[in-house]
Amino acid sequence: MATPPPYPTHDPGAPAGAALRAGTAVRAGTGRPHWWQRRAIRVTALVTLLALSGLVILALVREQTGTQGFLVGLGLAVLPVPLLLAAFRWLDRVEPGPWRNLIFCFAWGACAAALISIVANSFATRWIATATADPTSADTLGATVIAPVVEESAKAAAILLIFLFRRRDFTGILDGVVIAGITATGFAFTENILYLGTAFGTDQLSGDRGLTSVTAATFFVRVVMSPFAHPLFTVLTGLGFGIAALSADRLRVRRILLPLTGLLLAMGMHALWNGSSTFGDYGFFAVYAAFMVPAFALLTWLVIWTRQRELRTVRAELPAYAAAGWLTPPEPFALGSMRARRIARAYATRTQGKAAARAVAEYEAYATSLAFLRHRVLRGRAGADFAVRERELLSALWSRRDAARPALTYAAQATAPPVVVVPQQWQGPGPGGPVGYGTYANPNPYANPNPNPNPNPYAYPPYPHPAYNPYQTY
Fold it and tell me: Cα-flanking dihedrals φ and ψ of residue 427, to 5°?
């Protein structure tokens, strides 16, 4: 294993982010950046692009469905959105990503990706119909070939942008799943407005009402049976990016092939789903039962297993910082348990107020990022700026320690496994020992013969923070 660089010196007075900004200034030099490199310019351009896309897609959908159909479609399409967003946010609780990334992903899916898909799909279908003089075949080809390629590529663009420009927030599989899922949720939201609004317009012309209407059938298929369809497709792309994020920077071929493989799998499953209606009367249900449900169950198991694995990583990597004095001994245990984290935030709210609870939540997020950073360093997958990033995280933790440490200590005590005291049996004086002293026969051969006099192993006073290298092997 390569020897990592020396451990950075901690400056408790330095604000979080100062080290990173200083490092950026050194790398960038003293000259002024170009105008397109300024953060304000980029943010303004991105917001403008998404806003214009939203206005155009709003006009297109309203033109196709009518005002009444648009309102009905909007009211029905919004129903699954909170559930999907809550599910993906729950997966992201171990190391929560910034809200600005999630808002960008949802807006990209609902506005930019939807607009690209509508325009490209319509153009390609019309071109095929004109070239082949067969509108029916053009619609089938557009749904099974053109739409999966266009839509999955448009949604994957948001994942790629986060991967390239917010690399610090994209560190593993769960980040890829959450970013992909929220992007696809936004896309499905806009698409459902279009489909449900169009179905309502059809019912208005035919006079159908109730459960036999086209609107009811569309709602059942798209919102009740398959609200996870688009997220499921795009999550395959997110998995490719997430596994690529775990690879070392030097493995460039793998970091390119993995996202492309995930994108191809997403396109393939999307094409299979769209083409299920061409497989006969029961083709939709066959594809749903044979592919969609098993794939959804497998991915659900994978992301939950990954979530537990990340918690184990937190418990395994943070004790080095506790030994250095940056954390107290109870903290690695508490930070590696979602139940203990919730108890810590609730305790901080009850004893110190909501501001303290926010500080505890931030402390938990920074500590998790620190554990993942150390995990990547020890496996040779960290970037060249890992020491600057580590110093920044430690500074952020140190500035929040007053609110977080009591809460986490309380949570560790509340969730610690019970200490079982095994009774010992007197056997009489030991061989060669003084009169009145003997040996004990412990019926539990695995019990510690010299138990810790402190019955609570997590109640220790805080350590100082000496200059210590957690990567050094002693």
Answer: -115, 5
How many residues are there in the chain?
A: 474
Considering the entire predicted model, what is its pTM? Answer: 0.79
Using CA atoms, how far apart are residues 133 and 400, in angstroms rounded to an integer? 68
Those residues of the chain that have pLDDT short of 70 are 1-37, 249, 418-474
Q: How far apart are CA 379 and CA 2, in angstroms?
A: 9
Among 49, 76, 73, 51, CA closest to 61: 73
- Give me the amino acid identity at 437: Y
Q: State how far the Cα of 218 lies from the Cα of 254, in Å rounded to an integer.
A: 41
Question: β-pairing, 438-441 with 425-429?
Answer: antiparallel
Contacts of 102-105 with C-beta under 8 Å, sequence gap 24+, read 102/178, 102/179, 102/182, 104/46, 104/50, 104/158, 104/161, 104/162, 105/158, 105/159, 105/162, 105/179, 105/182, 105/183, 105/186
Amino acid at 327: L
Q: Which of 165, 187, 171, 188 is nearest to 100 (CA)?
A: 165
